[in-house]
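Most newcomers find our protein records easier to grasp once they have seen one. Read left to right, the backbone structure tokens trace the chain's path through space. Once this layout is familiar, the rest of the handout is easier to follow. The record below serves as our worked example for the rest of this section:


***
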Amino acid sequence: MTPRSARGLVALAIVFASIGAGFWLHAFWTSRRGPEASVPPPLSTADVLQAAFVTVAERVRPAVVHIGTVQVARTRRPPASPGPFADDPLLKEFFDQFFGPRAPGNRGEFHQPGLGSGVIVDGRGYVLTNFHVIKGADGVIVRLSSKREYRGRIVGTDAKTDLAVVRFEPEAEVTVATLGNSDALRVGEWAVAIGNPFGLDQTVTVGVVSATGRADVGIASYENFIQTDASINPGNSGGPLVNLRGEVIGINTAIVATGQGIGFAIPANMAKRIVNQLIDRGKVTRGWLGVAVQPLTPELAQALGMKQAKGAVVSRVYPSSPAAAAELRQNDVIVTFDGVTVEDYNHLHRLAAEAEVGRTVKLGIVRDKQPRAVELKVTEAPDTPTAGR
């Protein structure tokens, strides 16, 4: 026998010995622990789903903050002296109850606690929230999940989408939430709302995506809401709506006061565009066509020679606007925007607003029952509310 063959036999003997030892250890373990301990039981669907919810909560909750505001008390003339009742505890309780407690270190400031929620979207301390949460505030208090409080400042606001960005200066690394792709949402997907309803910090509620693309709700100028039945209450405003991958798919904004299980969230994709502009420039720039449009009803579609009620009807063309330069007319029906089918007038509103200023776009229109194509150069939308699309 050659040395090489001998080494091979030794190696083979070691393998068989290892296998035998393994079987012996398995038999010994089974005899000591019972046959049920030899194979772990399979996870049930409920176990898997429960683990998913727990994981989402643990991952996202540290990125959710409590938003309070500071308002400066303004009086016509400060009192000449504190007065004889300045230190009366009953009077102090009265004023604290109706006007909010004074901010520490400043007798002229008042905290307004429990106003809403926010979510950290940038490690530098940028927080995304609702405009209505911080509207009218002179300052902001940001309270983290660790209960640590920071003074924040308002970086920028956008009343037309009800979004705002606040910044605080973190002393250590903070958890940042991931903004997901809300365009990929499907009705029936799980949705998790996290926020501070009624001041109850870090509350998690669960539901589903009830609908997408909700408009004409009357909350903001640009509406494309996600509807959910995840429980949303006062104080949830500005907090995230999250999918089971732990991605923020929306910013919780409003509820239907007369109903139950009807809440609305601003889609994450809309929020991405707004938050980036607010961080970079402190304001939002939108595209403008220079037309006022109205819904295309089935009756109006038939009268205008349309096969289906998809599109937006031009009701007015503003002078010296891109639409005027392109010779758009009243009763033109805009059916496509740079190749994208226009679903309705709200859809056109969003497409125009999201278009890059200075870019030339091609509109597909129907005029006198005939299809046409026109091109126009998008300009920046003016601030006046009657300026149209």
The CA atoms of residues 7 and 213 lie 72 Å apart. Helices lie at 3-33, 45-60, 89-99, 131-134, 268-281, 298-303, 322-325, 345-354.
